[in-house]
Prior knowledge:
Helices cover 75% and strands 0% of the residues.
Amino acid sequence: MDLATLRVFFQTAPFIDRAIARQAAENRTSRQIAALKDIQVAFAAATRARDVSQSALLNHQFHEQIGEMAQNPYLFAGLKRMLIDHTRLSQTFFNPQSLLGCGPRGQGYRPTRCNDCSH
Length: 119
């Protein structure tokens, strides 16, 4: 993702997120709320386990579930496109080593010692 695309992503995401969330709140079913809660519980477990890939995928599923709850095929199409890049970005966001400056992406500040490397 280049810088121009990243900029458009961050400009557009709040508009889609707000519209989807508002319609999801209006149109959701009890079954959809239960599914959303299940995803959130699994996400919390994945983040505690520091499972970066699973955290990113569950975060994707969480947002996709909210999109389905909105029952708006026009917004859902835009959300699904946005979630592709969102999930890609999440791989870095949910990786604690990216904040510590460890590994190939590492350029962050180092607030503590990393348990997985020599920092």
